[in-house]
């Protein structure tokens, strides 16, 4: 029987830590994301809130639905509201599902900042303080125009998160920027590296005339690079990607990847905490939304990116 | 089956008199003890966190009710000796069909709901039929449907609407007679009264300032309770319930005594699909949209709830009340850990540890009272 009680003892030791911290009057914030556990990109967000929390002396918790199910995310926002924080920082991955819980949070007296996905208009409609992020379609469009300038006419969009509308918008924006129809040029790659690699290889074998590859984050970019190396296309095919990561930076350096679109997620986590803490302490608030991206990262000026990739970049 | 057999007339010397222990030999006792333990735990560690405020209670009640709806179906099917791994995909698929019918095809919502239920139940029957005809394990057959249904839930909206989330169901559902049965709320007057009298908190600002933070009990919770009650009565008070136990305990023996095992199993597959569609319909009506990723991994959550509730994975033993309590435990633990402020990366560690603890406690109690080895 003794072994049965060990979990409680362990639990007790970890539970008491946050409770003790609440003894002094403090500001509490919750950041809710739509990312499944498997998405490594969000580590930068966690580092961002950790640093901002430390600097401003506030508590920031990170919450996400384990499988990326947006209906579960709605419950998490409801839960966060019920726990009575001073502010909620949340992504707005699907307006229909999340607008109700976010409106309830605002009406309950909790200040909300929308980050990452969603649009400035939607943030205003919900009564959020502001929107901090990179408009997805526009970023895809800008990338498409850039690629068109470099002579690209057809492409493959590797969509690893097809259930998320924002992902599809990036592909659509890129196609529109190029001035071509998206058609069948987007594949559902799934999240597993081996599957992504095999699907990219299968597509490129079936469509050898493809000019460019667009990946939507480090999750598909790393296996896509392997696929290109294996097929002897690395450095030959035009390769652009959204977001940065350790391997992506290496890829840009070695010339396999033309550019990475940095939406600077670190700022999406760091700035809202700073803004909210200042708002709650001194009542000051910037007058507009903050665009954290897009910024194109190319071979030039990679030094800082390289140093902090996966950590703050 | 043998340990739950009811004693025959009093003076039969072959039947042991169990006395007071007879009251305790119930599959749901472990679930009851587990529920008490879990609530005691969170009352201790998360009392001030808002978990037991009106909003907090509604939050974990809704999550528990979601688990309960699919757990009832999974429980009866598991007692009948089969698994359904396609529950999660069925949730995504059914929700998507409702959205496609109403938004893309413009059908009235009630027709869309009824047709979707028809399709889901038919797919459930197909699942059952394949299992029975081929003799393959239901684990494999329903795993295939896990992929098939999820694939359609992504392919159809992608092809038809060029996106994976279809919204606009709320507008279509305005004034529909069937939609409120899934997405509506009841007892709204009671909550308004409670808000006016300061019994529950009210919104502080915005267009809804002064209204209570809870404006009614969602139909989701009502469905969960109704399904649990229906399942319990079916299992314990009817001949069909005995057939379910018999089919799962030893199918061949059950056939010898005239139980229509195949029919029972197929009906249970259909009921599981029905429960998944209830879940999906409530979700679509509440959120007003259907997404291709809805219901991911829900099949395992249903099975976890059923096992916490004391059912055997091998079939032939279990209780719907137990499964419902298992769903409550799972929901309370999952949401409660957020309230208790557990470090988010350790969240799943705690979830696993507490669930394991609940199952061990449950099994230990069951063995103690039934004398089973």
Concise overview:
Chain A is an alpha/beta fold and 313 residues long. Helices cover 50% and strands 16% of the residues of chain A. The longest helix of chain A is centred in the first third of the chain and has 20 residues, at 2-21.
Reconstruct the topology from this structure.
The complex is a heterodimer of chains A (313) and B (373).
Chain A: H1 2-21, E1 28-32, H2 43-56, E2 59-63, H3 70-82, E3 87-91, H4 95-107, E4 111-116, H5 120-125, E5 130-133, H6 136-149, E6 155-159, H7 165-178, E7 186-188, H8 193-206, E8 212-215, H9 218-231, E9 238-242, H10 246-254, E10 259-262, H11 265-282, E11 290-291, E12 295-297, H12 303-308
Parallel strand pairs in A: 1-2, 1-3, 3-4, 4-5, 5-11, 6-7, 6-8, 8-9, 9-10
Antiparallel strand pairs in A: 10-12
Chain B: H1 21-24, H2 29-45, H3 54-79, H4 87-104, H5 109-134, H6 138-160, E1 165-166, H7 169-173, H8 180-183, E2 185-186, H9 188-196, E3 217-218, H10 219-237, H11 239-249, H12 251-256, H13 261-287, E4 290-291, H14 298-308, H15 320-339, H16 347-370
Antiparallel strand pairs in B: 1-4, 2-3
Helix pairs in contact in B: 2-15, 2-16, 3-10, 3-11, 3-13, 3-14, 3-15, 4-5, 4-6, 4-13, 4-14, 5-6, 5-13, 10-11, 10-13, 11-13, 14-15, 15-16
Explain what this protein looks like in three dimensions.
The complex is a heterodimer of chains A (313) and B (373). Chain A is of the alpha/beta class and 313 residues long. Chain A has two domains: 26-134 and 264-292, Rossmann fold, CATH 3.40.50; 136-262, 3-Layer(aba) Sandwich (Rossmann fold). Helix content of chain A is 50%, strand content 16%. A six-stranded parallel beta sheet of chain A has the order 2-1-3-4-5-11, sandwiched between helices. Chain A has a six-stranded mixed beta sheet with strand order 7-6-8-9-10-12, with helices on both faces. In chain A, α9 (218-231) packs across α10. The longest helix of chain A has 20 residues, at 2-21. Mean pLDDT of chain A is 85; it is low at 1-24. Chain B is mostly helical. Chain B has a single domain, classed as Orthogonal Bundle (ABC transporter involved in vitamin B12 uptake, BtuC), CATH 1.10.3470. In chain B, 67% of the residues lie in helices and 2% in strands. In chain B, the strands form two sheets. Chain B has a two-stranded antiparallel sheet. The radius of gyration of chain B is 22 Å and the shape is globular. The model of chain B has no long low-confidence stretch (mean pLDDT 86). Classes of the chains: A alpha/beta (313), B mainly alpha (373). At the A-B interface, α1, β2, α3, α4 and α7 of A face α3, α13, α15 and α16 of B.
């Amino acid at each position: 029987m003794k072994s049965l009680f060990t979990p409680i003892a362990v639990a007790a030791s970890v539970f008491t830590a946050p409770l003790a911290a609440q003894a002094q009057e403090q500001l509490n914030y919750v950041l809710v994301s739509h990312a499944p556990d498997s998405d490594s990109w969000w580590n930068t967000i966690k580092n961002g809130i950790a640093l901002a929390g430390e600097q401003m002396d506030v508590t920031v918790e990170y919450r996400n639905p384990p499988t990326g199910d947006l209906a579960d995310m709605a419950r998490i926002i409801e839960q966060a509201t019920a726990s009575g924080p001073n502010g909620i920082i949340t992504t707005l991955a699907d307006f229909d599902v999340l607008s109700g819980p976010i409106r309830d949070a605002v009406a309950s007296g909790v200040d909300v900042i929308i980050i990452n996905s969603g649009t400035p208009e939607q943030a205003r409609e919900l009564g959020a303080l502001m929107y901090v992020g990179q408009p997805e379609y526009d970023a895809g469009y800008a990338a498409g125009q850039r690629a068109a300038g470099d002579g690209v006419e057809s492409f493959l969009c590797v969509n690893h998160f097809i259930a998320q509308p924002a992902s599809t918008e990036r592909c659509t924006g890129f196609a529109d920027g190029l001035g071509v129809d998206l058609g069948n040029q987007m594949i559902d790659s799934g999240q597993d590296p081996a599957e992504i690699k095999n699907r990219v290889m299968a597509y490129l074998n079936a469509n050898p005339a493809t000019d460019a590859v667009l990946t939507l984050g480090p999750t598909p970019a790393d296996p896509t690079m392997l696929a290109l190396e294996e097929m002897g296309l690395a450095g030959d095919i035009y390769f652009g990607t959204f977001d940065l990561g350790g391997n992506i930076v290496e890829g840009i350096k070695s010339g396999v990847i033309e550019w990475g679109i940095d939406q600077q997620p670190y700022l999406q986590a760091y700035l809202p905490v700073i803004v909210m803490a200042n708002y709650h302490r001194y009542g000051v608030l910037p007058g507009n939304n903050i665009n954290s991206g897009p910024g194109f990262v190319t071979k030039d000026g990679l030094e800082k990116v390289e140093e902090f990739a996966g950590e703050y970049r | 089956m043998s340990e739950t057999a009811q004693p025959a007339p009093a003076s039969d010397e072959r039947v042991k008199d169990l006395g007071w222990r007879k009251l305790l030999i119930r599959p749901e006792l472990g679930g009851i003890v587990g529920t008490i333990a879990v609530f005691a735990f969170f009352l201790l560690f998360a009392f001030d966190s808002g978990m037991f405020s009106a909003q907090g209670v509604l939050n974990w009640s809704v999550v528990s009710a979601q688990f309960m709806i699919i757990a009832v179906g999974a429980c009866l099917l598991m007692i009948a000796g089969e698994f359904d791994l396609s529950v999660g995909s069925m949730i995504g698929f059914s929700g998507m069909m409702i959205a496609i019918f109403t938004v893309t095809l413009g059908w009235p919502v009630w027709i869309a709901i009824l047709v979707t239920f028809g399709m889901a139940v038919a797919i459930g029957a197909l699942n059952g039929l394949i299992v029975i005809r081929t003799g393959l394990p239901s684990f494999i057959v329903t795993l295939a449907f896990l992929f098939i249904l999820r694939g359609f839930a992504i392919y159809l909206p992608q092809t038809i609407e060029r996106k994976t989330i279809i919204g606009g169901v709320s507008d279509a559902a305005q004034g529909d007679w069937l939609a409120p049965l899934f997405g509506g709320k009841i007892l709204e007057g009671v909550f308004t009264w409670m808000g006016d009298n300061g019994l529950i908190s009210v919104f502080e600002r915005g267009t809804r300032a002064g209204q209570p933070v809870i404006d009614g009990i969602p139909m989701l919770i009502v469905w969960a309770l109704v399904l649990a009650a229906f399942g319990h009565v079916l299992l314990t008070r009817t001949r069909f319930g005995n057939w379910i136990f018999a089919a799962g305990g030893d199918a061949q023996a059950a056939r010898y005594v005239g139980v229509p095992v195949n029919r029972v199993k197929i009906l249970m597959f259909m009921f599981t699909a029905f429960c998944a569609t209830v879940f999906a319909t409530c979700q679509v009506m509440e959120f007003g949209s259907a997404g291709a990723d809805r219901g991911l991994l829900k099949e395992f959550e249903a099975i976890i709830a059923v096992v916490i509730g004391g059912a055997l994975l091998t079939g032939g033993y279990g209780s719907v009340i137990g499964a419902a309590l298992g769903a409550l435990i799972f929901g309370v633990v999952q949401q409660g850990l957020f309230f208790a402020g557990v470090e988010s990366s350790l969240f799943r560690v705690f979830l696993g540890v507490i669930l394991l603890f609940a199952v061990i406690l449950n099994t230990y109690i069951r063995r103690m009272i039934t004398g089973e080895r």
